[in-house]
Write a structure and sequence with these properties.
Number of helices: 4
Helix content: 55-70%
Order of helices and strands: HEEHHEEH
Length: 149
């Protein structure tokens, strides 16, 4: 069941990235909300916020290790709630979604561009990772509080 959810999230990510590659790439940027949000095609050869450019093998190894550990936790009894499992599913889907790009293209396709906030462009897989990490932190805090009580 977890693998199906992961596969569906990866498929959604890859469909959007394929659109970005086939259409958005040639337009460069589309204003969705003027001076707030654009869809902008970017080839990211680094990690978050473009850090550590051109170190693809490091990102590939980290994504594979994180996914294997995540799958272990999903199938063990170490995660006792749906929140914990959802967080890991999101992290794995995001890691593998970007891993596919790194292996297939040698870069990650980014397209969400909130121009009023910062100068960084990101993608749906990145959103999965960030939301999953946030939810995992919430899960750990809640679990820790339950154990103390």
């Amino acid at each position: 069941m977890y693998e199906l959810a992961i596969a569906l999230l990866i498929a959604l990510d890859q469909i959007i990235k394929r659109w970005a590659l086939n259409d958005l790439q040639y337009k460069g940027s589309i204003s969705v909300i003027k001076d707030v949000f654009n869809l902008t095609y970017v080839e990211n050869r680094g990690a978050a916020f473009g850090l550590f450019q051109n170190n693809q093998w490091v990102f590939i190894v980290v994504a594979l290790i994180a996914s294997i550990i995540g799958l272990y936790f999903l199938h063990s009894n170490k995660l006792s709630s749906k929140l914990g499992k959802l967080s890991v599913v999101l992290i794995i889907a995001g890691a593998l979604g970007n891993l596919i790009d790194r292996i297939r293209l040698d870069y990650v396709v980014d397209y969400f561009d909130f121009v009023f906030v910062w100068n960084y462009v990101f993608n749906l897989a990145d959103c999965f990772i960030v939301v999953g990490t946030f939810l995992l932190c919430v899960y750990v805090i809640i679990s820790d509080n339950k154990q103390k009580n």
